[in-house]
Design brief:
Blueprint lengths: L1 E4 L5 E5 L4 E5 L17 E9 L4 E7 L3 E8 L2 E5 L5 E4 L4 E5 L4 E6 L6 E8 L9 E5 L8 E3 L4 E6 L6 E3 L5 E8 L2 E3 L2 E3 L4 E5 L5 E4 L4 E7 L2
Antiparallel strand pairs: 1-19, 2-3, 3-4, 4-11, 5-10, 6-9, 6-11, 7-8, 7-10, 9-12, 13-14, 14-21, 15-20, 16-19, 16-21, 17-18, 17-20
Length: 219
C-alpha cells in the first residue's frame, strides 16, 4: 500500500507573528485528527521555517527520538540537559534522544531564513538517559541508524533521471525535500510524502535533481 500525502494537505502551525512557520504532517499540538496520529514509530514530520532571530525557547521533551535535517540556513541548538551546544548546517543530521526528560533551545541566530525538517520517533522502550549527537556532512546513501526507535534514515540526492531504490521494509516513510520525483506512477514534489506498507521492489525516479528523506521503519 502506498498512501501519498500532499504538501498542500499539511496543516499550519508555529507562530508566524514571531517568525516561526510550521507545516505538520501528523496530529500535533492543538490539532488532532484521530486518523492521523502516527505511522509506525513516526509521530511527527514537521517542516519548519524560522526567520532570522526567531526560534523555540527552552522547552521539554520526553520519550521521543528527534531527528533534524537542515535544508538551508543554520540551526543553533542548546541542550541544557546534556550540556551540548552548537550549530547544525545543511548536510548535518542532529539527533536528540530525550529519554525520560530533556530540555533544549532551537533558534535561528543567523542573518538568513532557516529551513529544516524534523522527524519525531517513538522509542522501542520508554525512559533512559538523554542522548545527543550530530553527524557532519552525511554522504548520499549513507544509512543513519536510530537504534532506540528501530529505524534507519536514508538521505538520497538523485540527479535528473536517476533511480533510487526504496528499502524493502515493512514500513517506509518518504519525504521529498527538493525535486520532482515519481513513485509507482505518482508524481511527488517538495513537501509531499508517502507512507508505504508491505511493498517490495519500489523505485523513485528523479525528474530533476532532488533530495529526499527515506525512513526505513520496523513492522
Amino acid at each position: 500500500m502506498i498512501d501519498v500525502r500532499r504538501a498542500a494537505d499539511r496543516y499550519a502551525g508555529g507562530d508566524p507573528g514571531t517568525g516561526i512557520t510550521t507545516r505538520h504532517a501528523f496530529s500535533f499540538g492543538s490539532f488532532y485528527d484521530p486518523d492521523n496520529i502516527r505511522f509506525g514509530p513516526v509521530l511527527a514530520c514537521n517542516e519548519e521555517l524560522l526567520a532570522p532571530g526567531s526560534g523555540f525557547d527552552e522547552h521539554p521533551h520526553s520519550h521521543t527520538e528527534i531527528v533534524t535535517w537542515v535544508v538551508e540556513g543554520e540551526l543553533t541548538h542548546r541542550d541544557s540537559t546534556t550540556g551540548h551546544t552548537g550549530t547544525v548546517r545543511p548536510g548535518d543530521v542532529q539527533r536528540l534522544g530525550s529519554g525520560s526528560g530533556a530540555r533544549h533551545v532551537e533558534r535561528n541566530d543567523g542573518d538568513r531564513p532557516l529551513r529544516f525538517v524534523q522527524t519525531w520517533l517513538a522509542p522501542l522502550a520508554a525512559g533512559g538517559d538523554p542522548t545527543y549527537e550530530v553527524v557532519r556532512g552525511l554522504a548520499d546513501g549513507t544509512p543513519y541508524e536510530v537504534p532506540a526507535a528501530g529505524a534507519v534514515l536514508h538521505v538520497r540526492r538523485p540527479g535528473a533521471g536517476e533511480r533510487v531504490p526504496v528499502p524493502d521494509a515493512e514500513r517506509v516513510y518518504l519525504h521529498v525535500v527538493h525535486g520532482d520525483l515519481r513513485l509507482d506512477g505518482a508524481e511527488l514534489g517538495p513537501g509531499d510524502s508517502a507512507r508505504i506498507t508491505g511493498e517490495k521492489n519500489l523505485e523513485v525516479t528523479a525528474g530533476s535533481p532532488g533530495e529526499l528523506l527515506i525512513w526505513e521503519l520496523p513492522a
